[in-house]
Amino acid sequence: MFELTKEHEEFRRLVRDFAEREVAPHVAEWDRAHHFPTELVPKMGELGLFGLVVPEEYGGAGLEEGAFTYLCLAIEELGRIDQSIGITLSAGVGLGINPILTYGSPEQKQRFLPDLVSGAALAGFGLTEPDAGSDAGATRTKATLADGQWTINGAKAFITNSGTDITSVVTVTARTGTDAEGRPEISAIMVPSGTTGFTAEPAYNKLGWHISDTHGLTFANCVVPEGNLLGERGQGFRQFLKTLDDGRIAISALAVGLSQACLEAVTDYAQTRTAFGRPIAVNQGVSFQVADLAVMVEASRLLTYKAAWLKDELSAGRGSVAAVKHAASIAKLYSTESAVTATRIATQIFGGNGFMEEYPVARFYRDAKILEIGEGTSEVQRMLIARGLGLPA
Fold it and tell me: Which residues, in sequence order, are CB contacts of 79 under 8 Å at separation 6+?
Protein backbone atom coordinates (compact mmCIF):
# COMPACT_ATOMS: atom_id res chain seq x y z
CA MET A 1 0.00 0.00 0.00
CA PHE A 2 1.23 3.47 -0.79
CA GLU A 3 2.29 6.04 1.77
CA LEU A 4 4.35 9.21 1.67
CA THR A 5 7.90 8.70 2.84
CA LYS A 6 9.83 10.83 5.30
CA GLU A 7 11.73 12.24 2.31
CA HIS A 8 8.48 13.17 0.58
CA GLU A 9 7.27 15.06 3.64
CA GLU A 10 10.59 16.88 3.98
CA PHE A 11 10.34 17.87 0.33
CA ARG A 12 6.79 19.12 0.91
CA ARG A 13 8.04 21.45 3.64
CA LEU A 14 10.85 22.68 1.40
CA VAL A 15 8.41 23.65 -1.37
CA ARG A 16 5.94 25.13 1.10
CA ASP A 17 8.65 27.38 2.51
CA PHE A 18 9.61 28.44 -1.01
CA ALA A 19 6.00 29.20 -1.97
CA GLU A 20 5.35 31.22 1.17
CA ARG A 21 8.59 33.16 0.74
CA GLU A 22 8.78 33.72 -3.03
CA VAL A 23 5.15 33.63 -4.15
CA ALA A 24 2.77 34.59 -1.35
CA PRO A 25 4.03 38.18 -0.84
CA HIS A 26 3.53 39.04 -4.53
CA VAL A 27 0.61 36.95 -5.70
CA ALA A 28 -2.17 39.51 -5.17
CA GLU A 29 -0.25 42.14 -7.15
CA TRP A 30 0.61 39.70 -9.94
CA ASP A 31 -3.01 38.60 -10.14
CA ARG A 32 -4.34 42.16 -10.41
CA ALA A 33 -1.82 43.02 -13.11
CA HIS A 34 -2.24 39.72 -15.02
CA HIS A 35 1.54 39.51 -14.76
CA PHE A 36 3.47 36.36 -15.54
CA PRO A 37 6.53 36.42 -13.22
CA THR A 38 9.24 35.24 -15.57
CA GLU A 39 11.83 35.85 -12.86
CA LEU A 40 10.23 33.17 -10.66
CA VAL A 41 10.77 30.34 -13.16
CA PRO A 42 14.59 30.10 -12.77
CA LYS A 43 14.12 30.11 -8.99
CA MET A 44 11.81 27.14 -9.35
CA GLY A 45 14.46 25.55 -11.53
CA GLU A 46 17.15 26.14 -8.90
CA LEU A 47 14.96 24.33 -6.40
CA GLY A 48 14.87 21.41 -8.81
CA LEU A 49 11.12 21.49 -9.41
CA PHE A 50 11.26 21.15 -13.20
CA GLY A 51 13.69 18.23 -13.05
CA LEU A 52 11.94 15.92 -10.60
CA VAL A 53 11.06 13.32 -13.24
CA VAL A 54 14.13 13.91 -15.44
CA PRO A 55 17.39 11.87 -15.47
CA GLU A 56 20.60 13.44 -14.25
CA GLU A 57 22.13 13.47 -17.73
CA TYR A 58 19.72 16.27 -18.67
CA GLY A 59 20.14 18.16 -15.40
CA GLY A 60 17.29 16.45 -13.56
CA ALA A 61 17.09 14.90 -10.12
CA GLY A 62 17.54 11.35 -11.37
CA LEU A 63 15.16 10.02 -8.73
CA GLU A 64 14.84 6.26 -8.77
CA GLU A 65 11.67 6.02 -6.66
CA GLY A 66 8.62 8.20 -6.19
CA ALA A 67 9.54 10.89 -8.74
CA PHE A 68 5.98 11.58 -9.87
CA THR A 69 4.79 11.81 -6.29
CA TYR A 70 7.47 14.44 -5.62
CA LEU A 71 6.14 16.42 -8.58
CA CYS A 72 2.57 16.23 -7.30
CA LEU A 73 3.68 17.43 -3.87
CA ALA A 74 5.37 20.44 -5.48
CA ILE A 75 2.28 21.24 -7.55
CA GLU A 76 0.02 20.93 -4.51
CA GLU A 77 2.14 23.24 -2.37
CA LEU A 78 2.51 25.88 -5.08
CA GLY A 79 -1.21 25.59 -5.82
CA ARG A 80 -1.98 26.12 -2.14
CA ILE A 81 -0.59 29.65 -2.52
CA ASP A 82 -1.62 30.30 -6.12
CA GLN A 83 -3.13 28.11 -8.80
CA SER A 84 -1.44 29.96 -11.66
CA ILE A 85 2.01 29.21 -10.31
CA GLY A 86 0.99 25.62 -9.72
CA ILE A 87 -0.18 25.17 -13.30
CA THR A 88 3.00 26.80 -14.59
CA LEU A 89 4.95 23.94 -13.03
CA SER A 90 2.38 21.29 -13.91
CA ALA A 91 2.25 22.27 -17.58
CA GLY A 92 5.96 23.03 -17.72
CA VAL A 93 6.77 19.45 -16.76
CA GLY A 94 3.74 17.44 -17.86
CA LEU A 95 3.09 19.15 -21.19
CA GLY A 96 6.45 20.74 -21.91
CA ILE A 97 9.17 18.41 -20.66
CA ASN A 98 7.49 14.99 -20.53
CA PRO A 99 6.64 14.59 -24.24
CA ILE A 100 10.23 15.44 -25.18
CA LEU A 101 11.63 13.19 -22.45
CA THR A 102 9.37 10.29 -23.38
CA TYR A 103 9.36 10.46 -27.16
CA GLY A 104 12.25 12.72 -28.15
CA SER A 105 15.40 11.65 -29.94
CA PRO A 106 18.74 11.96 -28.14
CA GLU A 107 19.43 15.16 -30.13
CA GLN A 108 16.05 16.66 -29.24
CA LYS A 109 16.53 15.86 -25.58
CA GLN A 110 20.01 17.39 -25.48
CA ARG A 111 18.82 20.46 -27.35
CA PHE A 112 15.83 21.34 -25.18
CA LEU A 113 15.77 19.53 -21.84
CA PRO A 114 18.71 21.13 -19.97
CA ASP A 115 17.26 24.65 -20.30
CA LEU A 116 13.74 23.44 -19.51
CA VAL A 117 14.94 21.63 -16.40
CA SER A 118 16.95 24.61 -15.15
CA GLY A 119 14.06 27.03 -15.58
CA ALA A 120 15.93 29.02 -18.20
CA ALA A 121 13.16 28.12 -20.65
CA LEU A 122 9.58 26.87 -20.79
CA ALA A 123 7.80 24.67 -23.31
CA GLY A 124 4.15 24.20 -24.26
CA PHE A 125 2.01 21.50 -25.82
CA GLY A 126 -0.45 22.52 -28.53
CA LEU A 127 -3.35 20.07 -28.59
CA THR A 128 -6.65 21.93 -28.17
CA GLU A 129 -8.06 23.81 -31.14
CA PRO A 130 -10.99 26.21 -31.55
CA ASP A 131 -13.11 23.32 -32.89
CA ALA A 132 -11.33 20.39 -31.23
CA GLY A 133 -11.39 20.30 -27.44
CA SER A 134 -12.61 17.04 -25.85
CA ASP A 135 -12.79 15.68 -29.41
CA ALA A 136 -9.06 16.01 -29.90
CA GLY A 137 -9.17 13.54 -32.74
CA ALA A 138 -10.91 16.24 -34.78
CA THR A 139 -7.62 18.15 -35.10
CA ARG A 140 -7.60 20.36 -38.18
CA THR A 141 -4.05 21.69 -38.05
CA LYS A 142 -2.15 20.12 -40.94
CA ALA A 143 1.51 19.47 -41.56
CA THR A 144 2.78 18.56 -45.02
CA LEU A 145 6.20 16.98 -45.56
CA ALA A 146 8.21 17.95 -48.64
CA ASP A 147 11.93 18.24 -49.32
CA GLY A 148 12.83 17.37 -45.74
CA GLN A 149 10.61 20.03 -44.16
CA TRP A 150 7.22 20.17 -42.47
CA THR A 151 4.91 23.02 -43.47
CA ILE A 152 2.32 23.60 -40.76
CA ASN A 153 -0.98 25.46 -41.08
CA GLY A 154 -3.69 25.76 -38.46
CA ALA A 155 -4.53 27.12 -35.04
CA LYS A 156 -4.41 26.03 -31.39
CA ALA A 157 -6.33 27.38 -28.40
CA PHE A 158 -5.74 27.77 -24.66
CA ILE A 159 -2.07 26.77 -24.70
CA THR A 160 -0.21 27.24 -21.41
CA ASN A 161 3.39 28.55 -21.24
CA SER A 162 3.30 29.21 -24.98
CA GLY A 163 4.00 32.94 -25.21
CA THR A 164 6.37 33.87 -22.40
CA ASP A 165 9.67 35.65 -22.93
CA ILE A 166 11.43 32.36 -22.16
CA THR A 167 9.25 29.93 -24.13
CA SER A 168 11.65 27.91 -26.28
CA VAL A 169 9.40 25.43 -28.07
CA VAL A 170 5.81 24.29 -28.46
CA THR A 171 4.98 20.73 -29.49
CA VAL A 172 1.85 20.66 -31.66
CA THR A 173 -0.35 17.87 -32.92
CA ALA A 174 -1.18 17.99 -36.60
CA ARG A 175 -2.69 15.90 -39.35
CA THR A 176 0.14 14.49 -41.43
CA GLY A 177 -1.91 12.24 -43.71
CA THR A 178 -4.32 9.32 -43.40
CA ASP A 179 -3.79 5.81 -42.09
CA ALA A 180 -4.53 2.52 -43.87
CA GLU A 181 -8.19 2.73 -42.83
CA GLY A 182 -8.60 6.29 -44.07
CA ARG A 183 -8.61 7.91 -40.65
CA PRO A 184 -6.59 11.06 -39.93
CA GLU A 185 -2.95 10.37 -39.15
CA ILE A 186 -1.95 12.64 -36.27
CA SER A 187 1.68 13.36 -35.45
CA ALA A 188 3.48 15.58 -32.94
CA ILE A 189 5.92 18.18 -34.25
CA MET A 190 8.18 20.54 -32.29
CA VAL A 191 8.02 24.21 -33.31
CA PRO A 192 10.72 26.43 -31.76
CA SER A 193 9.72 29.94 -30.69
CA GLY A 194 10.59 32.55 -33.27
CA THR A 195 9.96 30.25 -36.22
CA THR A 196 8.59 32.22 -39.16
CA GLY A 197 4.85 31.70 -39.48
CA PHE A 198 4.39 30.72 -35.82
CA THR A 199 2.51 33.37 -33.84
CA ALA A 200 1.48 33.41 -30.21
CA GLU A 201 -1.68 35.52 -30.23
CA PRO A 202 -2.34 38.11 -27.48
CA ALA A 203 -2.88 36.57 -24.06
CA TYR A 204 -6.44 35.65 -23.14
CA ASN A 205 -8.47 37.77 -20.74
CA LYS A 206 -9.42 34.87 -18.44
CA LEU A 207 -11.86 34.46 -15.57
CA GLY A 208 -9.10 33.01 -13.41
CA TRP A 209 -5.46 31.92 -13.56
CA HIS A 210 -4.55 35.55 -14.20
CA ILE A 211 -0.87 34.93 -13.56
CA SER A 212 -0.60 31.94 -15.86
CA ASP A 213 0.55 32.46 -19.46
CA THR A 214 -2.12 31.27 -21.92
CA HIS A 215 -2.36 32.01 -25.64
CA GLY A 216 -3.96 30.97 -28.86
CA LEU A 217 -1.43 29.95 -31.50
CA THR A 218 -1.54 30.29 -35.27
CA PHE A 219 0.60 28.60 -37.89
CA ALA A 220 0.69 30.12 -41.35
CA ASN A 221 3.05 28.24 -43.70
CA CYS A 222 5.26 27.60 -40.69
CA VAL A 223 8.25 25.54 -41.81
CA VAL A 224 10.38 23.33 -39.54
CA PRO A 225 12.87 20.56 -40.34
CA GLU A 226 11.67 16.99 -40.79
CA GLY A 227 13.77 16.10 -37.75
CA ASN A 228 11.41 18.12 -35.52
CA LEU A 229 8.94 15.25 -35.62
CA LEU A 230 8.53 14.05 -32.02
CA GLY A 231 8.47 10.29 -31.85
CA GLU A 232 7.04 8.22 -34.67
CA ARG A 233 4.92 9.64 -37.45
CA GLY A 234 1.24 8.90 -36.89
CA GLN A 235 1.66 8.27 -33.17
CA GLY A 236 0.67 11.76 -31.99
CA PHE A 237 -2.78 10.64 -30.84
CA ARG A 238 -1.36 7.86 -28.67
CA GLN A 239 1.31 10.20 -27.33
CA PHE A 240 -1.07 12.89 -26.16
CA LEU A 241 -3.41 10.32 -24.55
CA LYS A 242 -0.49 9.14 -22.46
CA THR A 243 0.46 12.74 -21.69
CA LEU A 244 -3.09 13.49 -20.52
CA ASP A 245 -3.14 10.48 -18.18
CA ASP A 246 -0.20 11.91 -16.24
CA GLY A 247 -1.58 15.43 -16.49
CA ARG A 248 -4.85 14.43 -14.83
CA ILE A 249 -3.01 13.33 -11.71
CA ALA A 250 -1.07 16.58 -11.69
CA ILE A 251 -4.28 18.62 -11.99
CA SER A 252 -5.67 16.60 -9.10
CA ALA A 253 -2.71 17.69 -7.00
CA LEU A 254 -3.35 21.28 -8.02
CA ALA A 255 -6.97 20.90 -6.89
CA VAL A 256 -5.86 19.45 -3.56
CA GLY A 257 -3.71 22.53 -2.98
CA LEU A 258 -6.70 24.78 -3.65
CA SER A 259 -9.00 22.86 -1.32
CA GLN A 260 -6.33 22.88 1.38
CA ALA A 261 -5.97 26.65 1.03
CA CYS A 262 -9.75 27.05 1.41
CA LEU A 263 -9.80 24.84 4.49
CA GLU A 264 -7.03 26.84 6.16
CA ALA A 265 -8.66 30.15 5.26
CA VAL A 266 -12.12 29.29 6.59
CA THR A 267 -10.83 27.58 9.72
CA ASP A 268 -9.01 30.76 10.70
CA TYR A 269 -11.75 33.13 9.56
CA ALA A 270 -14.54 31.27 11.36
CA GLN A 271 -12.68 31.66 14.64
CA THR A 272 -11.82 35.35 14.23
CA ARG A 273 -14.94 36.70 12.54
CA THR A 274 -17.66 37.54 15.05
CA ALA A 275 -21.42 37.95 14.61
CA PHE A 276 -23.95 38.52 17.35
CA GLY A 277 -21.11 38.81 19.81
CA ARG A 278 -19.42 35.47 19.22
CA PRO A 279 -17.21 33.75 16.63
CA ILE A 280 -19.19 32.40 13.69
CA ALA A 281 -17.47 29.02 14.22
CA VAL A 282 -19.89 28.29 17.11
CA ASN A 283 -22.73 28.08 14.59
CA GLN A 284 -23.24 24.57 13.25
CA GLY A 285 -24.26 26.06 9.93
CA VAL A 286 -20.64 27.18 9.62
CA SER A 287 -18.74 24.47 11.47
CA PHE A 288 -20.48 21.65 9.61
CA GLN A 289 -19.48 23.21 6.29
CA VAL A 290 -15.86 23.42 7.48
CA ALA A 291 -16.06 19.77 8.56
CA ASP A 292 -17.37 18.76 5.12
CA LEU A 293 -14.52 20.69 3.54
CA ALA A 294 -11.99 18.81 5.68
CA VAL A 295 -13.45 15.50 4.50
CA MET A 296 -13.19 16.57 0.85
CA VAL A 297 -9.57 17.62 1.30
CA GLU A 298 -8.61 14.33 2.91
CA ALA A 299 -10.42 12.21 0.32
CA SER A 300 -9.02 14.25 -2.58
CA ARG A 301 -5.51 13.94 -1.27
CA LEU A 302 -5.74 10.19 -0.78
CA LEU A 303 -7.17 9.62 -4.25
CA THR A 304 -4.52 11.85 -5.82
CA TYR A 305 -1.54 10.28 -4.11
CA LYS A 306 -2.82 6.78 -4.71
CA ALA A 307 -2.88 7.64 -8.42
CA ALA A 308 0.61 9.18 -8.20
CA TRP A 309 1.87 6.09 -6.38
CA LEU A 310 0.42 3.84 -9.09
CA LYS A 311 2.16 5.98 -11.70
CA ASP A 312 5.47 5.60 -9.85
CA GLU A 313 4.88 1.86 -9.55
CA LEU A 314 4.32 1.67 -13.31
CA SER A 315 7.53 3.61 -13.93
CA ALA A 316 9.33 1.00 -11.80
CA GLY A 317 7.93 -1.82 -13.91
CA ARG A 318 5.10 -2.77 -11.61
CA GLY A 319 1.34 -2.40 -12.03
CA SER A 320 -0.58 -1.66 -15.21
CA VAL A 321 -1.39 1.22 -17.51
CA ALA A 322 -5.11 0.52 -17.08
CA ALA A 323 -4.87 0.89 -13.30
CA VAL A 324 -3.12 4.25 -13.64
CA LYS A 325 -5.64 5.53 -16.19
CA HIS A 326 -8.58 4.52 -14.00
CA ALA A 327 -7.11 5.98 -10.82
CA ALA A 328 -6.14 9.19 -12.63
CA SER A 329 -9.68 9.78 -13.87
CA ILE A 330 -11.21 9.05 -10.46
CA ALA A 331 -8.77 11.39 -8.72
CA LYS A 332 -9.21 14.12 -11.31
CA LEU A 333 -13.01 13.97 -11.21
CA TYR A 334 -13.38 13.96 -7.44
CA SER A 335 -10.61 16.37 -6.50
CA THR A 336 -11.49 19.04 -9.06
CA GLU A 337 -15.22 19.00 -8.38
CA SER A 338 -14.42 19.09 -4.66
CA ALA A 339 -12.15 22.10 -5.20
CA VAL A 340 -14.94 24.00 -6.93
CA THR A 341 -17.25 23.17 -4.02
CA ALA A 342 -14.54 24.16 -1.53
CA THR A 343 -14.20 27.62 -3.04
CA ARG A 344 -17.96 28.10 -2.98
CA ILE A 345 -18.05 27.10 0.70
CA ALA A 346 -15.13 29.37 1.53
CA THR A 347 -16.67 32.35 -0.26
CA GLN A 348 -19.99 31.76 1.48
CA ILE A 349 -18.40 31.58 4.94
CA PHE A 350 -16.49 34.79 4.26
CA GLY A 351 -19.80 36.41 3.33
CA GLY A 352 -19.49 39.87 1.80
CA ASN A 353 -15.74 39.79 2.37
CA GLY A 354 -15.54 36.72 0.15
CA PHE A 355 -16.75 38.86 -2.73
CA MET A 356 -13.91 41.33 -2.26
CA GLU A 357 -10.66 40.87 -4.17
CA GLU A 358 -8.62 41.84 -1.10
CA TYR A 359 -9.41 38.42 0.32
CA PRO A 360 -7.74 35.41 -1.36
CA VAL A 361 -10.95 33.34 -1.41
CA ALA A 362 -12.21 35.57 -4.23
CA ARG A 363 -9.19 34.56 -6.32
CA PHE A 364 -9.67 30.93 -5.27
CA TYR A 365 -13.27 31.08 -6.50
CA ARG A 366 -12.22 32.47 -9.90
CA ASP A 367 -9.39 30.00 -10.30
CA ALA A 368 -11.35 26.86 -9.46
CA LYS A 369 -13.69 26.34 -12.40
CA ILE A 370 -11.02 25.60 -15.00
CA LEU A 371 -9.96 22.56 -12.97
CA GLU A 372 -13.15 20.77 -14.07
CA ILE A 373 -12.35 21.55 -17.72
CA GLY A 374 -8.61 21.28 -18.42
CA GLU A 375 -6.87 17.92 -19.01
CA GLY A 376 -10.25 16.35 -19.76
CA THR A 377 -13.60 17.65 -18.57
CA SER A 378 -15.58 16.06 -15.73
CA GLU A 379 -17.84 14.53 -18.37
CA VAL A 380 -14.87 12.92 -20.09
CA GLN A 381 -13.63 11.55 -16.76
CA ARG A 382 -17.02 9.95 -16.05
CA MET A 383 -16.93 8.38 -19.50
CA LEU A 384 -13.44 6.99 -18.89
CA ILE A 385 -14.32 5.69 -15.44
CA ALA A 386 -17.41 3.93 -16.81
CA ARG A 387 -15.33 2.44 -19.59
CA GLY A 388 -12.79 1.25 -17.03
CA LEU A 389 -15.61 -0.57 -15.24
CA GLY A 390 -16.40 -2.45 -18.41
CA LEU A 391 -19.48 -0.46 -19.35
CA PRO A 392 -20.10 0.19 -23.07
CA ALA A 393 -17.95 2.92 -24.57
Answer: 85, 86, 87, 253, 254, 255, 256, 257, 258, 261
The single-letter DSSP state of residue 27 is: H
26-76 residue pLDDT tens: 999 999 999 999 999 999 999 999 999 999 999 999 998 899 999 999 999
Q: pTM for the whole thing?
A: 0.96
User: Is position 375 annotated as part of the catalytic site?
Assistant: yes
Distances (CA, A) of 335 to 31, 103, 257, 363: 24, 29, 10, 18
Nearest partner of 236 among 153, 303, 174, 143, judged by Cα: 174
Pairing of β 274-275 and β 278-279:
antiparallel
Given the candidates 3.60.15.10, 1.20.1530.20, 1.10.1740.10, 1.10.540.10, the CATH classification of the domain at 6-120 is 1.10.540.10
The CATH class that applies to domain 237-388 reads mainly alpha
Report the C-alpha gap between 100 and 19 in whole angstroms. 27
- Looking at CATH, the fold of the domain delimited by 125-233 is given as Butyryl-CoA Dehydrogenase, subunit A; domain 2 (2.40.110)
Q: Choose, from 76, 129, 313, 375, the residue flagged as catalytic.
A: 375
- CA atoms of 163 and 193, how far apart (whole Å): 8
